[in-house]
Amino acid sequence: MKKLVGEHIQTLKPYVPGKPLEELQRELGVDDPIKLASNENPLGPSPRAVEAMGAVLKSNHFYPDGASYRMREAIAEAHGVSREEVLTGNGSNEVLTMAVRTFCRSGSDVALMPEYSFAAYGIVSQAQDVEVRKVPVKEGFVNDLDGLLDAVDERTKIVFLANPNNPTGTSVSGTDLRRFLERLPDDVVALVDEAYHEYVRAEAYESALEMRDAHERLIVTRTFSKVYGLAGVRAGYGIAPAEMVGFMDRIREPFNSNMMAQVCVPAALSDREFIERSVTVNEEGRRALEEGLAGLADRGVSWTPSETNFLLVKLPVEARPVYDAMLRLGVIVRPMAGYGLPEHLRISLAEAVHMERCLGALERALDQVEGGR
After folding, report:
1. Phi-psi label, residue 340: left if phi above 0, alpha if psi -120 to 50, beta otherwise
2. What's the pTM value of the predicted model, to 2 decimals?
3. Which of 28, 30, 61, 217 is deepest in the core (most CB within 10 A)?
């Protein structure tokens, strides 16, 4: 196979998703497990979205609209942009892929990103044989925008920046982000990933969509997998200048946005009541989890303040055995060793009752692991 597969693919480590509930039940026979590993909405999908999908179930023998007209129109209207400035994707992950494939040349260009970034940035870049460079973060896992600017050179073609960031949950201020975009060279693409935008509470935060005047080559991505509760539908989008969208559209897969996505996205965008309820539940879950973690502080447990629907939790021991013990107790969280954080777990926020169950499992798992040392 080495004669057939390039080295950049041979050395590529694929994305590892959170363990599905069905797999845990199948492997360990756990009854009533809860999944807190992939930052999904615990309330499920928007009811309006479910109703819209049900209305077209009998039409799924037809191909969807190849131009995703209604979906793009609804997104454009929600953000006050033109339809030509909207690119839809099979999840926002596909938009990341299209950006790299369109604007980066294999074997010569560089993709720049903070040290602790969403794994997909590096994966889609390496898959295109684009060199991946990571810049250390500042204290508290805050992304270092000046460090990113200092790392830009003549080979840099795209800079990935999640705000708020995954897996750390931190954000940068609107003032700092605008300054970064203004200073970034004109021929470098800035891709600002705002998957967790709806959860942000920080007053200093500002969406990059309000800074489109600051940098000509700006792509802002959003997803329907988080607050909208539509992770299974695979719907996301990017907003960028029409010229950039036009080029990315050339390499977009035909019918990449399925019929379910195209009908449920306009409905989900209109369901403000559901979005507000989802944010409220997230805040209730945050308070419950943070209060419980504070009670474990004397055992060396801490967490990073978050603007998302998850917390990055630091343990006094290696996280993998704790994760395994929590699995046996029916609670799925996410170990972060793959991100270079071997003592950390990422825990998705959910309803307070599930947070209490998670905390109980965490405490029992720590007892087991520390007792076996």
Report:
1. left
2. 0.95
3. 217
